[in-house]
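Archive entry. Fields below.
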Amino acid sequence: MASLMAMTALGRRDPATVTHGPLTISERTDVALASVAARKGRMANLSASARAAGLHLPGPATHSQGTPYSAFWVAPEMWFVEAPFASHELIADMLKAALGDAASITEQTDAWVAFDVAAPDLAPLLERLCNVDFPAVPQGHATRTVIEHLGVYLIKHGPGTARIYGPRSSAESLLHAVETAAHALW
Amino acid sequence: MIIHHPILGPRDAQEFVYLGDASLIDRPDGMTAGVEAFHDYLYNRTNPAGEHQELWYHEQGDRSWLVVTRNTVTHEITKVELARDVARARGRTK
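PREDICTED_STRUCTURE:
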């Protein structure tokens, strides 16, 4: 058995943290991710089994915080589910066991890079990066948008905290885009 | 241009990709409709100066296909529906 070292999306051993002025960008490698999509005509079954598993599937453009499972809406009858990586590394298998055949579940953990961005006010940063009206949308808003030509998911956890999921293969470019906007500001 | 997405509300048109005439939903049955009907479906489009139904894809959003009713002269958008609902209403899918 080969002895393999896990590497982050940025090719390092440990998650990166960058601070600039009031902004902190923290790479998150402790989140397991899977997509859950209701199979045709099976939404009622999925709702029931999700409820039994303690998984709340929120409405459009919304993120729902929970333990262990959080989830955000990505498309009609489709969600991304987040859980702690340490306990849910095999999140797709665990969800399949919990939700049965009412949903199609796909492992997503290693397809994305997650950055938590935090500053007293994120509005000036995010208005330079994407077209989401960050101060206007409610807490818990989750949407797909574009940052520097990259399709990303943006989740608002508070006026000064947000998470960005971007394509893992473009992790450096996404980080560079956020850093560049931060340097223009502060 | 702003497209009022039926689920997500007003979204910038740059998030969308344009496909074309929404008559693409009405594909004839290739086994029974005959070659003329399929030729019309594939190649012939009306090109109205006025109200036009067209397919848009919300690529940088929720990946839904929409049927947008747009006036090609004024660019006014009068109606936006999920293509899924339109197709079901026309009996295209279950």
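CURATOR_NOTE: The radius of gyration of chain B is 14 Å.
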